[in-house]
Amino acid sequence: MSGSSSTSGRSVRDARAGLLVASVICASLAREAGRAVKLLHTREEEFLASHPRMPMRYWVRLGFHRDGRVAASAVDCGTVIHPAAAEGRVHGAVTQGIGLAMVEYVDWYNGAPTNPQLVDYPIPSAMMLPRQHVAFADSYEPSGPYGAKGIGEIGLDAIPAAIANAIADAVGVRGSVAYKRAMAVEFAARALLRAWERTR
Amino acid sequence: VNRAALQCGMCTPGHVMAAVALLERNPNPGEAEIVESMDSVYCRCTGYARIRGAYTEAIALLAKAEGR
Asked: N or C: which terminus of chain A has fewer CB atoms within 10 Å of its end residue's CB?
């Protein structure tokens, strides 16, 4: 019991509020059980026990040039409180979407990432990106502050799907977007291989 | 900051240094030179569009300050 208490005290000094709650629970459990209690943090538990966001409905609409460059996105985020910052968020989200779909890939070997540096892990740079327009829907979210919804990375969501669809449309093979978003090269290579096998 | 060209601020010092270096070399750079200068620094948040806006504003301020 004394051990558990000191754990909880340490976590107060560490200002790790999430741990504090668990520590208090552990302390009570230890008192009830009359023996030491082990506190185990796993990623799974972390996701199960963390605070969920409110259910919210968003829509995003994208526009592309003929050659595949992103031209514009329209996002519904309720009342736009800071237009310049909100536009920046959407620009950034689109950039991240392009990155996830086209160039970024986390590679693992023996439980460690093999490309932990920006040298090995490319993200979109200024030259890769087209000029894009951003528009916001005229909407009001009753549950949000001043009618606003989170703008976060909403603009991101549709980009990998659009790129996956474009590739599927171009090569006639559909891959699993959920598992491999860094699919462009791999996916196209697979499709070409299959097409080549068909010709034999 | 005027142009909301930063979000997390991590890359901002790098972009400012790159911009100053460019503007010292060429106080009135073209679009291609601005993009090339921005290309030297990664940014995860902004998608570079608003940073380009900040470059444009910096160029205008510089021109005004030098009375051009």
From this structure: C
User: What's the pTM?
Assistant: 0.68
> What are B's interface residues with A at a Cβ cutoff of 8 A?
3-5, 7, 35-36, 38-39, 42-52
DSSP string, A144-181: SGGGB---TTGGGTHHHHHHHHHHHHHHS----TTT-S
Chain A / chain B CB contacts < 8 angstroms: 61
| pLDDT mean across residues, chain B | 87
Taking the C-alpha atoms of residue A89 and residue A63, their distance in angstroms, rounded to an integer, is 17
The C-alpha atoms of residue A49 and residue B44 are separated, in whole angstroms, by: 28
User: In the prediction, which pLDDT does A45 show?
Assistant: 72
| Three-state DSSP class for residue A133 | strand
Q: What is the pLDDT of residues A116-174, one digit of tens each?
A: 888 778 788 888 888 888 888 888 888 878 888 888 778 888 888 887 777 777 766 66
Distance of CA A19 to the CA centre of its chain: 24
Compare all CA atoms of chain B with the CA of A84 and give the residue at the minimum distance. B4
Q: Is the pLDDT of residue A105 over 50?
A: yes
Sign of the dihedral through C-alpha A13, A18, A22, A25: positive
Token pair 């009375």 in the structure block, residue: B67
